[in-house]
Amino acid sequence: MGPKLFERTPGRVPEVRTRRFGALIALTALTLLLVACTGAPSQTTSAANSVASVGAGAVAAAPSAPAASSAAASAAPSSAAPSAGGGSGDAGSPNAKVNVAAGVQAENRQVIRTASVTLEVRVKSTGNSAAQVEADQTSVNKAVSDAALEVRSLANGPGFVSASSGGGATVSITLRVPVTGYESVMNALARDGIVTSVTENTQDVTAQMIDINSRVKSAADVIASLRTLLGKATKIGDILSVESQLNSREADLESMKSQLAGLSDQTSLSTITVVIKGVITDVKPVVPPKKPAPPAARSGFLGGLANGWDAARALGHAVLTVIGTVIPFLPLVLVLLIAGLIWRRRIRRGHQTPILGTGDPRSTE
């Protein structure tokens, strides 16, 4: 019995091969199906999910709309990709978006340009006195104000002044000017003062705007399909489910439109921030007054006599100073002195009163 387990049956070999071949075909078909599902746009998948949540009656009537939108969404990237990068044009590939942006001509690219410019307005100093310094500061403020008016005039026409701050010797102005007039405005700023620093930045948002435009179109197609399903739904649960999906899609669409509008505004108008500073030049240093030279030392007889005379004068000056200080207090001192004398006399009179004895005849009275 043991050796017969390993014997091959001639009739079973073709059957085993047929089963293996059928399994291989099924595996290949499953793989192709998975690849096709993963390569479909995200909008089609979400639309299919929303369709699946609707009742059986609505699902039967709706497959044509999502299929058309998915076909349009997949056809647009695939047709743009070959012209952009010359590649395979697979809409599901991660390089499809980059290839579309790379195919845009240089004059049609969407670029955000910003710049920061610092201008110095210089006024020559007229002097170091307080009045001259005040006059110089007034002149600087006026020169900065005139330069600010010139800078503001550069935004006339399609452009405008979006912000302004500061005052006196420092003013900051933000201009929004058309992209076509960006270079002319930058060149004109040098005429209003001395440019001390310039910072320019550019950001290419072509790919981002193309992506948002594509997403807006796909979202609009999905919303149209959901509205069609909403009109055909009859059950309350189906209506609520479709309305929830529709509200979410409409909110996403409005958000994408806002982003697109913001990018369009930034690419159509460049932003230039100008800081104007007033500076006083040729300021003369303040010379301190010279100190008087100390007197020369005196010596000898005449020098000693002069020193003694100076000492006598200093002493007399000190004595006169003391007398002059005391004189205002003399009336008060005199009054106190008179009061003290009167009080002293009264005390003496009280001590001089005679003491009468027992034999004095006045004592009996």
Automatic annotation (TrEMBL):
Residue span(s) of domain DUF4349: 109-339
Lineage: Bacteria, Bacillati, Actinomycetota, Actinomycetes, Nakamurellales
Pfam families linked to this entry: DUF4349 (PF14257)
Superkingdom of source: Bacteria
InterPro entries, per database record: DUF4349
Protein name (record): DUF4349 domain-containing protein
Residue intervals passing through the bilayer: 318-343
Keyword Transmembrane helix: yes
Alphabetically ordered keywords of this record: Membrane, Transmembrane, Transmembrane helix
